[in-house]
What does this fold into?
Amino acid sequence: MTLAAGWSGYALPDDMLSGTGLRIVEGVVLSIPFIGVWAADLMFGGRFPGQILENLYPLHVAIAPALIAVVIAVRAALALRHGQADQPGPASGSLGLRLWPDAASRALGMTGITGAVLVLLGATSTISPVWAYGPVSVGEVGAGSQPDWYMGFLDGALRLVPVGWETEWMGWTVTFATLVPLVVVGGYFALLIVYPYVEAWVNQDREPHNMLDRPRNVPVRTGIGVAGALFYGILWGAASADIVSTEFGVSFESVITALQVLLVVGPPLAFEVTRRICVGLQRKDREIVRHGHESGRIVRMPNGGYAEVHVPADEAERALLAVVPVPATPGHRDGNGRLRGSERLRGALSRRFGTGHVVPVPDRDRDRAITQGNDRASDRASGRASGRASGKASGKDLTRIE
It folds into this structure.
């Protein structure tokens, strides 16, 4: 709804910049097979520019704001019904400010400040004086035009498609230059919506969770998030590829090629690097739980050796850092003992997601979990098969040594 409100307002000034953006939208809509011409005619009300401004005005000033208000109200009702998420550890509690009167007072103050600045700008400044140079010319395109920051990822997706990527099919010209960005961006947002339900299905976890997870405790989920953020960032950066080319004196084609390669290679690499960082942070936490913090103080032992004095972690820190691994949920067999394809897939995904997945230890089990070496099981869940194999080959337990 926010994107719809922003884009519709972006088009209303009817200058060269907004006209160029509307031309791009028209081209994308027209390229949709079978329904493109009908959809463009419905949106624009005839040949460009048609009645698009008259159609976008009520969307910008009434429809989108009303829907945003409804979404905010529903969100507030859900928060009142289910409560806010708690922080992990003993110092748990609702995050942020109370809705009333704290958050409401702050929002009212920010609204007043924003309104005052807008009134001051309107009274003292000339912004987008379209009356000074006339409305958009349908036969021209503004040079160096850039989308607003919130629409940059869509424009960048269009720029990263290879040149001439189209084909003929049953007498129709199918233009992948616009269809692929639509599918990819649509799939990206669909993944954001369905991911919580997919994860719940993979892990067979339907219980409500009101406690926030530390990112390091769920390495796969954190890796997916970082990979998605990088994917979005590359698309967003591609929207200014022409500005990067002119400002840094490099060819536009080389910038696009580099971003195309990065779009394919970057997210998987970011996922794996993030996952390994999370696993490494888990090991550091387990070391603190076992031995405490390094103090930098070296003492001499009675036998003549030297050792560093460690400061034990306090109870609150141990409650936060002490964790146990979450076992994977294998695929369930049906009444005939057969493992269906969907369950086989779910079991494989559960094993993959369970790599390094840990949860805090309940208070009553914390000391026993630490003393009995449950954190060693987390090492095994983190994929340390090679280390264990080499340790067994040399007759040593590398996990115990560490």
Summary: The chain is about 60% helix and 5% strand. The radius of gyration is 28 Å.
